[in-house]
Amino acid sequence: MDIYVNFLPPTPHNIQMEASAEVNQRIARITAHLHPSNLQMEENSSLRAANCRAKGGAPGFKVAILGAAGGIGQPLAMLMKINPLVSVLHLYDVVNSPGVTADISHMDTGAVVRGFLGQPQLESALTGMDLVIIPAGVPRKPGMTRDDLFNINAGIVKTLCEGIAKCCPNAIVNLISNPVNSTVPIAAEVFKKSGTYDPKRLLGVTMLDVVRANTFVAEVLGLDPREVDVPVVGGHSGVTILPLLSQVKPPCTLTKEESEYLTNRIQNGGTEVVEAKAGAGSATLSMAYAAVKFADACLRGLRGDAGVVECAFVASQVTELPFFASKVRLGRTGAEEIYQLGPLNEYERVGLEKAKKELAGSIQKVGNFPQTIFRSPISWVELQQFN
Ligand SMILES: NC(=O)C1=CN([C@@H]2O[C@H](COP(=O)(O)OP(=O)(O)OC[C@H]3O[C@@H](n4cnc5c(N)ncnc54)[C@H](O)[C@@H]3O)[C@@H](O)[C@H]2O)C=CC1
Ligand SMILES: O=C([O-])CC(=O)C(=O)O
C-alpha cells in the first residue's frame, strides 16, 4: 500500500508522538516512501519528517497540473484539491511550485498534494498519473492574438508532452495552453513521434467558451446560467469559436440582433478579459473554473459514469479538418464518441465556413514550423524576456 504524507506543524500532540518507538518506526516507513521531490522541498522547510503521520491514500484518481504556479494553475490546483474524485494531486512548474504546494497542502480535503520543481522533476511529477492538465505557457497581452503565443508555447507543450509520452502514456491530457487550435495538433505530433498517440486521450480545453456562452445567453434570456447549455464548436480563437445558438437548451428564440451580439461577445470573451486586465494577463479565474468543470467530467468518464458529454477540441471526422471542437462523450478511455454538429441555421452555416478556413490555417501552421516544434526546451530567461 502506498503511504502518503502530510507534514504537520509541531503541536504538543505531535511532539509527544516523536517519543514513541512505534512512531519512530512509522516515520522510518514514511521516509522510505517519501518522494525525492518532497524531500527536496522539505529541505527548504523548517518542518521535519518527525512531525508526520502516515495515512492511507483515499480512493480516486491521480492528477498532475503542469504550470501549477501560474495565474490559471493556482486556482485550478486549489479547486482540484477540493474535488472528491482526486486522491493525489501533483503540482509541477518551473518556478514557485514549492510555495503553491505548501499552501494548498494545508487544505483539509482528501487529495494528497506533492510539488515538483523544474525539468529534472518532470518525470516524477508525471509517473502514474491518470489525468494531466496543462495550463503551462505564456498568456496574451492587449493587442496580441492567441497565435502570437505560438512560438513560445509550442516549445513548452512539446517538452511536457514528451514527458507524458514517456511517463504516463495512458493518461488523459487536458491541454489549456494557447493557441489551443495549434497546441493540440503539436501534442498529437509529439505523441505520434513517440508511438503513444491515442486521439481519444488528447483533449483541447474549450470549456471556457461554453461557460461564457451559458453566462451571456442566460443574461439575454433572463435565466439562471446553470440552467442554460450552449454547444460551442470549431476551435478556441476568434471566428473559430462558433456557438450554436439554434441548439440552446432550454429551447429559445433569439432575434437576429441578439444572435449577432451573443456570437460576437462569445468569440471575443478572451479579448474582453485581456483588455480589462490591461497587461496583467488573460482569463485565469473563470478559466480555472472551466478547467475544473472539464477535468471533473473527464474523471467521471474515467470512473465509468454514463452520459458525460462536454465540448472539446479533438481529433475529429465531423468536418474535413483533422481537429475540431464539438460535443464528445467522455468515458473510461477518454473521448469515446464524437457527436455530429446537428442541424445549423443559415447564420451558423456561414460561421462554420469562416471557422473552418481560419482553423485550417492554425492546424497547417504546425506542419509549417517543425523547427519550432523540435527546438530545445524554453529557458526561464526566455520566459522572463517574454513577460
Ligand atoms: N484554453 C483556454 O480557454 C485558455 C487558455 N489560456 C492559456 O493558458 C496559458 C497559461 O495562462 P496563465 O496561467 O494566465 O499564464 P501564467 O503566465 O500566469 O502561468 C503560466 C505558468 O506556466 C509556467 N510554465 C512556463 N513554462 C513552463 C514549463 N516548461 N513547464 C511547466 N510550467 C511552465 C510558468 O512558470 C507559469 O507559472 C496561456 O497560454 C493562456 O493563453 C488562458 C485562458 C483560457
Ligand atoms: O484570450 C486569451 O488569450 C485567453 C483565452 O484563451 C480565453 O480567455 O479564452
From TrEMBL:
The keyword Transcription regulation is annotated on this UniProt entry: no
Xref: Gene3D superfamilies: Lactate dehydrogenase/glycoside hydrolase, family 4, C-terminal, NAD(P)-binding Rossmann-like Domain
Lactate/malate dehydrogenase C-terminal domain ranges (all copies): 206-369
GO molecular function, one term: L-malate dehydrogenase (NAD+) activity
One GO BP annotation of this record: malate metabolic process
Enzyme class: oxidoreductase
All copies of domain Lactate/malate dehydrogenase N-terminal, residue ranges: 62-204
Reactions the enzyme catalyzes: (S)-malate + NAD(+) = oxaloacetate + NADH + H(+)
Family indicated by similarity: Belongs to the LDH/MDH superfamily. MDH type 1 family.
Name recorded for this polypeptide: Malate dehydrogenase
